[in-house]
Amino acid sequence: PDGDLVSYNWWQYAEADTYAGSRDGNVRITHVDADPAKVMVTVPSDAVSGDTIHIILAVSDNGEHSLTAYQRAIITVE
Question: Which sign, positive or negative, has the C-alpha torsion 43, 45, 46, 47?
């Protein structure tokens, strides 16, 4: 609401995942329509039911006192 520009940083928090291939770079995060606020996460075909993949979003503004907020999404494979 204050007009500051914001930036988005998405990443996989592999250390928290239960998916065995997490540290192999198998999970892909790609931007949708070149919009940094929207991503698509590709779950690898070798993931099994019950595996979890943790995705973190950090949103920062460019204000005088820069603020950052974090959110975690947990994907559970079915």
Answer: positive
* Cα 31 to chain centroid, rounded: 10
Mean residue pLDDT of the chain comes to: 93
pTM, whole model, 2 decimals? 0.87
What CA dihedral angle connects 69, 18, 16 and 39, to 10 degrees?
Answer: -30
- How many Å apart are CA 53 and CA 77, to the nearest integer? 8
One-letter identity of residue 8: Y
For residues 34 and 19, what is the distance between their CA atoms, to the nearest angstrom? 28
What are the structure tokens assigned to 40, written together?
Answer: 């698509």
